């Protein structure tokens, strides 16, 4: 059963990424729409999935993906995580996800500063 749950989560993440990269499928404010066009240009799809996995599934992230995340910027990171965390089936735990998001950001900044 855990395997099915993981598959469902992966499908959700892929759908969320599609919505994030194709604003016509999502309902976002004008400011967020402009961010989609400028964010996530330097992050590979694998790193984007890793970032989402850290926040929503307690996975780990590589140093290389941390560097990409920090290079892209905190506003872009916050926009992606907040967008996903506000989905109806996740919103009950939004505060937890935002806390994990901040912890990930701080971790990645510390990794980037030591390199």
TrEMBL record:
Residues 1-20 form the signal peptide. Residues 38-109 form the Prolamin-like domain. InterPro entries: Prolamin-like (IPR008502). The keyword Signal applies. The keyword Signal applies. It holds the Pfam family Prolamin_like. Keywords: Signal. PANTHER family: BIFUNCTIONAL INHIBITOR/LIPID-TRANSFER PROTEIN/SEED STORAGE 2S ALBUMIN SUPERFAMILY PROTEIN-RELATED, ECA1 GAMETOGENESIS FAMILY PROTEIN (DUF784)-RELATED. This is Prolamin-like domain-containing protein. It comes from Brassica cretica. The lineage of its organism: Eukaryota, Viridiplantae, Streptophyta, Embryophyta, Tracheophyta.
